[in-house]
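Q: Can someone sanity-check these two? First one:
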Amino acid sequence: MYKIVDRLARILALMGGAVLSVLVVLTCLSIVGRSLNSILHGDFIQSAMPGLAEWLLATGIGPINGDFELVEAGVAFAIFAFLPLCQLNEAHAFVDIFTSRFSERANKVLRMVIDVIFASVLVLIAWQLTQGMLSKMASGQTSFLLQFPVWWGYALGMLGAVTAAFVSIFIASMRILEVSTGRRILPPEMGAEH
């Protein structure tokens, strides 16, 4: 089961990375277009090369229409897309000033409690995103510039949030089994040094 959950988390993280990469390129192109548009509308270019400036402006050089809307929806997806892999690998930041003095058993119980709480929070987030998506669907609200349905962004975020909730429930369940049986179930190489 761990391999299936790991593969799901990795696929979603790769999708999040791809979306984030596209958003970086989109943002760069929009900034370059906005800058070129400003230069072509500037006094120097308008007086020195008005024909060339008008021709270039007629090609549509300028910012990408709706870039902020696309970045907003895409970044929300990317954040939630990275959460499952982060949870699976225990890559969240933590401070162990006090817990380093605890016994191994106490640390296992504490980790289990934290994972159960984290799973509960992610289930709540997934639930609220679902409710928000359904509300936006019912209202028919669209984005200002591109006029795409706002619920699409919620649906993308919900995909990652539901997957993160599933992964965190899996991890919490395995932690409960580890504490109750006293044996290791999850791979020992999990975790990150912070």
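And here is the second, same format, sequence then tokens:
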Amino acid sequence: MIYLVYGNDNTKKNEKVKSLALEAGIVRVPADQITQSAILTFSAQSQLFGSSPIVVIENALSEGDSIFNDELLSSVKNSPNIFVFLEDALTQVQIKKYKKYLEDTILCEKKEIPKAKVNAFVIADMFAKRDKVGTWTTYLDLIEKGEAPEAISGMLFWKIKTLLLARSVAPYSKNELEQASSKLVDIYHKAHGGDTDMKIALEQFILSTI
């Protein structure tokens, strides 16, 4: 009988192989070392002296010149011994091609936990409240999650202009906001001229302005 265990989670794949083996041994055979005669020998191996080892064949079905034709696969399918085809990746077309020979198909994929997105507007609000620690830590979080420094600078510039248009600019003075606006423009031009690293310059701006 044949089991197909495939996917990018090697830990789960190996755990599945062990669960199929139970008390039997495991023989691993890389695709480039397997032959038809070896497969037929494993397929016909007697279980008179205890459980035969399960045969794990690695990345053989995904090979374009696979030795596993219909005749060989039929022989393996009808064997009382267990064969596990361990594959890193298979297309649905390939799986469909071999499905009639398989006892079971097990997908072992790593589940990626998406990183929580940080709302870029948060940094503008914290800047407006003159929350230095909050603005700085949010900035670092945004950078870590791949937000472009130019986008963050644009958000802060927009907030400063909004505050300047408001009747009350507290907790900043109008002069402080005008200077901050000029600094952001200066940082942008220097960064794009190759005279400074915008990521570092913007962090320094946050720490020195708030």
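A (reply): Looked at the second one. The CA atoms of residues 161 and 181 lie 8 Å apart. The mean pLDDT is 87.
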